[in-house]
Amino acid sequence: MAPTEKYREIFGIMEVNVQTFLSQVSIPEADTGGGNESTGFDAGKFWTTLCTIADKLGFEANKATVMWINSPLPKPEDMHAVCGAFEIACVALLNTYHTLPSSEGATLKSFLTDGIKVVFESAVKFASCLLQSVGQTYASPDNHPLVSHCGIVMRACESLKTMPRTNGGAVAAKLLAHANIIKDALRELEEAKNSDSFMEDFECEENWSDSDFIIMSPLLGMIKTSGALTKKTMDTVKKCDQLDTLKIDAIPNLFAKIPELVDDLALSLYPPLDWNVSKTEAWKLKDHMEEVITQLGEILGPDHKTWLDFMEKAVKHNTATVQGILIQHGMAQLQLGEEKEKGETVKEVEEKGEGATKNGVSS
């Protein structure tokens, strides 16, 4: 068999094998022999082993790349050996991944699953690039497409080493992503309020009226409260080792809807501002935050009641302020027996929350 055909055979088999490894990432835990309980599981050893294998996989990808893109081409048997080492590292990574028991937390397992999939998806493309480049010529080694694919594999392997290693850390990481979305929505609104050029960039011919700014303040306060609630929950989960590992898996789903609700409210605040639409979106966010606070109380327990009460008061404060402004402008009516509940501002909530943390209320 000619060397070119041998290369094609080696790389073709490698591509099929790595594609098989990718499909095996999603095998149910019960079918892998890993078990659901963490009896005897050594988390420190697990992560050390995983990181070592990730380094090995990146090393083998780099080694194969250097051999293949430089002249003269390696002997088919030498290329077969280095590709075999790459596949062995893939198998070791897959096997180690499947030893993480679900009792360590579904959120952590989900994070790792996503990371492992990215590694194997990049490995499949790496093998495919090897196969497609057989018989091709390139101006220089740096122009070879395998170089970029190798870099992608190595970065994917490196990312495994920096991911959360506890379920609390994984939950906190998901909450951080939500918090950043809320922060971005708030930042863009603040920029739009304070910059005429910002509105011009979006070809917005209308601007806010003076009365619009009156109702925007508590509505922005509601968005800030959602961000404060998300961040405070994130810090609590990250710092508190006493929380039930499996119980906190419910938290990311609780907060998943908040960024969408914040975006809807934020979009309704751009001119021309329809107060009724903004109120509708604000009430959706309010209702969901109240539900989140209630369920957090059940998940986190009585030790965290103080700051959760602060958050609840902040929601009520902004709600009452919005309702009061609508009443003053004839857009709502004060019902018999209705009272505006006094709440605290987000700043007061955060200050008191920090005080509670210092006093040991939130660990």
Succession of helices and strands: HHHHHHHHHHHHH
Backbone structural class? mainly alpha
Mean pLDDT: 88
The number of distinct helices, counting runs of at least 4 residues, comes to 13
Query: Outline, from the CA principal axes?
Result: elongated
Briefly characterize the structure.
With 363 residues, the chain is mostly helical. It has 13 helices and no strands.
Characteristic terms for this protein:
single chain, 13 helices, 0% strand, disordered C terminus
Can you characterise this structure?
This protein is an all-alpha fold and 363 residues long. The protein is built from 13 helices and no strands. The longest helix has 30 residues, at 210-239.
